[in-house]
Amino acid sequence: MRALVLTEPRRPLVLLERPDPTPGPGQVLLDVRACAVCRTDLHIVDGELPDPKLPLVPGHQIVGEVRAEVPRPGHAPRFARGARVGVPWLGFTCGTCAYCRAGRENLCDAARFTGYQIDGGFASRVVADARYCFPLPEGVPDLQAAPLLCAGLIGYRTLRMAGDAERIGIYGFGAAAHLVVQVARYQGRRVFGFVRAWDEKGKAFAREMGAEWAGASNEPPPVELDAALIFAPAGELVPAALRAVRKGGTVVCGGIHMSDIPSFPYSILWGERVLRSVANLTRQDGEEFLALAPRVPLRTEVNVYPLEEGAAALEDLRAGRFSGAAVLVVANDEIPADRA
């Protein structure tokens, strides 16, 4: 198989030919059809998330076709050969700790993550634990389905943590935000988008995707917010978001990594405002969100790259050169003519 491999943090990914992975008990072997690129992949490549498996194949928003499954002893196969499934960030949990027993498997101390401690989908084939794979809804093409598996899922969990907030601010209008704004509007909420002050293209994209107002992240919105969702990995946005929410409002940090939060006066937290984070996802999140996605229906803006250009996709993400999500494809017949 072909794979983009991280040999050491802060070094470029290397395209290699490797032996096909062999599934063990409870695992599926997948032919990768598409894998979306996530900012978390950048955090891993840049060494901002510690102790990745090395060498590592990144990628955790995988759309694959089942080539083989090895059932766990005493269990029937979960998927038929040829089934289309999604592989998310959460790749394994212990199932027995207090967090897992309480339905909070996303906090399991023994959890392992796809494209971090487990080889991921920047490759032509991958193995995954069948229990953590999702059947994908029919009618959602591979390229549009891939970003749902992290950007969509984390966005959905972040929105859920805002409770029944009606007026929601979204800070950082990338892959997750452009999906969650559609869910929020479907639920009857009002959305206000925040981007960098100079980013006129980003403001226009936020409005196009459903925000009723879009402005600079350092300016106040036209109304007090009930909640703010932060997807940009910039700690300085936390005080800005706290100032934008009303008393009793909630600020939810949706990323896995963020720069240090600067000190801020207690007065902007006082008034029973809540500041919280979102960690990973649960399988229940995935099942709920993937059932909801075709009902909205979600429109996924994708920028397509062949597998061989995965490093370029990461650099384009870092530089903010596109709106929406980047998706790597393996089969050349899935690449639009202008990218082939």
TrEMBL record:
Known EC number(s)?
Answer: 1.1.1.1
Q: Which Pfam families match?
A: ADH_N
What superkingdom heads the lineage? Bacteria
Which cellular component appears as one GO term in the record? Answer: cytoplasm
Name the keywords, alphabetized: Metal-binding, Oxidoreductase, Zinc
SUPFAM superfamilies assigned to the protein according to its UniProt record, in alphabetical order: GroES-like, NAD(P)-binding Rossmann-fold domains
Task: Tell me where in this chain the Enoyl reductase (ER) domain is found.
Answer: 10-328
Q: Give cofactor(s), names only.
A: Zn(2+)
Which one of the record's GO molecular function terms can you name? metal ion binding
Return the NCBIfam families for the record: adh_fam_2
Q: Which family does it belong to?
A: Belongs to the zinc-containing alcohol dehydrogenase family.
Q: What is this protein called?
A: alcohol dehydrogenase
Give the source species.
Polyangium fumosum
UniProt lineage? Bacteria, Pseudomonadati, Myxococcota, Polyangia, Polyangiales
